[in-house]
Design goal:
heterodimer, A: alpha+beta, Alpha-Beta Plaits, Ubiquitin-like (UB roll), elongated, B: 96 residues, alpha+beta, Immunoglobulin-like, 2 helices, 21% helix, 55% strand
């Protein structure tokens, strides 16, 4: 039956209203003449509805005459009628064709290019090279040869060790993996200078000449190990400087190397109110989309803002401009985060802890990872204050404060 | 026994011996009822009456009446008819 219905749809069928005294005779005669009727429904006395294929309607007219019945076509269904209807509305058909064609055409171009994984080269650099290789906005996807583009990018940008180009719809993603930067050994003459204020605890010179001593206080920028090795009066005592023996009294320039450990102090301050008032997120959000074309705005989503207090976040999306033409369509996405007032009361100990945490977070940010903490002091300032607890943390660390600097 | 009667008798015998289905050999109506919603009748010889509550068919063994509600002829081809609707009864009445 489904096949029968489908074929009927293809070749077209009509729903007819038959009227007459001997409808049974009409049906029997139709059968004898090879006219297939289906879905015969009686609608009152001497009237019925039936479906009949378009190709047999002509035969049915003769049948109706013989059976003394009359019939009218109520509804036409199927491809032939659809075709006729389309023929009558040519512009609409044209529109459909243009739409489908346009969709197909537009989807066969590259519209967006994304570059991922690049640090050494900027995205524009990669895109420029890709454009020269034939990958730019507006090229046909068919003409794209990912293998060749990958090769060109790799050749032109030597720091990139692997490039992968994937096409996703109208978006092309250039995935790059860059070579691990191997630092060239810098052998240019250099000093080691201090990067922080501190008191030198120990100094180990591998190359160069120490200019500070233990227990010396240093300031940032001060030279710790000099790259200028002044000639020693007794040349025999310094065998490394044997080569410079000939040119005595000329200083030797080296790349200073060494470890300078120093005591460094950090402090952090934090405070907490015993009574706290503020606003915080409740976690509830609402999103609204607005489609703007020219001056008209089409809103998608809730009309009002369901929150009394909120923070708004707006992101805009535009189509990429083409030459000087900017598409007048934008998608605006507004996200609302609900806020609520809160008030919390802490006792002094809790407030102290909170202040300490804040202070500690500040200290921790300053201390480099390699530093070893040797001393830590917590101090509460101005204890007598009523609604405020203020905490200062003082941390002493031992760390390498040396920094290479060429000259 | 008339000539036609003899032929019929012979056919029946043959179909009995060879175990052929009677409906094929003797052109007897075969009624398939699916619940109370659908009925297929094979080997019918034409419609005698069709209304929303009753369909009467002519068959080789006489008149076959299907009673029901909202009856609808789903499909009709020579020899086979499918009736849909709420079927209440099927009656076979011999001629006369």
């Amino acid at each position: 039956m489904p096949v029968f219905n489908f074929v009927s749809y293809l070749i077209g069928y009509v729903i007819i209203l038959v009227e007459g005294e001997s409808l049974e005779k009409f049906i029997n005669l139709a059968l004898d003449n090879g006219v297939v009727l289906w879905d015969i429904t009686s609608i009152g006395k001497d009237r019925l509805l039936a479906k009949v294929r378009l190709s047999t309607v002509r035969t049915l007219r003769q049948v109706a005459r013989k059976a003394h019945c009359r019939f009218w076509i109520q509804k036409r269904t199927g491809i032939p009628f659809l075709y006729l209807r389309i023929k009558r509305r040519k512009s609409m058909a044209l529109g459909i064709v243009i739409f489908v064609l346009g969709l197909y055409l537009l989807s066969s171009f590259v519209w967006f290019i994304e570059v991922n994984g690049n640090h050494h080269y900027s995205s524009t650099e990669v895109l420029e090279v890709a454009a020269e290789a034939g990958l730019k906005q507006g090229v046909l996807k068919k003409q794209l040869k990912p293998k060749i583009i990958e090769k060109v990018i790799q050749e032109r940008l030597p720091e990139i060790s692997w490039v992968g180009i994937t096409v996703k719809g109208t978006r092309v993603i250039i995935e790059t993996v860059e070579k691990e930067q191997i630092k060239e050994k810098n052998e240019n003459p250099a000093h080691i200078i201090a990067k922080k204020v501190g008191i030198i605890k120990e100094i180990l010179v591998i190359n160069g000449q120490a200019v500070v001593q233990e227990e010396d206080m240093v300031v940032p920028g001060q030279i710790l190990i000099s790259g200028i090795v002044l000639p020693v009066k007794k040349a025999e005592e310094t065998p490394e400087q044997g080569q410079s023996l000939g040119k005595v009294k000329k200083p030797l320039y080296v790349h200073a190397k060494g470890i300078v450990n120093a005591r460094v102090w950090y402090n952090g301050y934090g405070e907490a109110y015993l009574k706290e008032k503020g606003q915080r997120y409740t976690g509830r959000t609402a999103t609204r989309l607005i489609l703007r074309t020219g001056f008209k705005e089409l809103r998608i989503g809730p009309s009002g803002i369901p929150f009394t207090k909120y923070k708004k976040e707006v992101t805009m999306k535009k189509l990429p401009p083409w030459r000087s033409f900017k598409p007048p369509v934008e998608l605006i996405r507004q996200k609302y985060y609900e806020l609520e007032n809160y008030e919390s009361v802490l006792d002094r100990e809790e407030a102290r802890q909170k202040a300490w945490q804040k202070a500690w977070a500040k200290v921790k940010k300053q201390i480099p990872k390699q530093a070893a903490i040797i001393k830590q002091e917590t101090e509460e300032i101005a204890k007598d204050q009523e609604e405020l607890v203020r905490i200062r943390i003082l941390v002493e660390t031992k760390e390498d404060i040396g920094l290479e600097k060429t000259f | 026994m008339t000539k036609r009667g003899t032929a019929k008798h012979l056919k029946q015998k043959v179909s009995e011996v060879l175990e052929f289905p009677d409906d094929i050999v003797l052109n007897l109506p075969k009624v398939t009822l699916i619940g109370d919603v659908k009925v297929f009748i094979e080997n019918h010889c034409g419609i005698l009456e069709y209304t929303i509550s009753r369909v009467r068919l002519y068959t080789t063994v006489g008149e076959l009446t299907v009673n029901g509600d909202k009856l609808k002829i789903r499909s009709i081809v020579p020899k086979e008819i499918c009736i849909e609707g709420k079927i209440k009864g099927i009656i076979l009445n011999k001629d006369g």
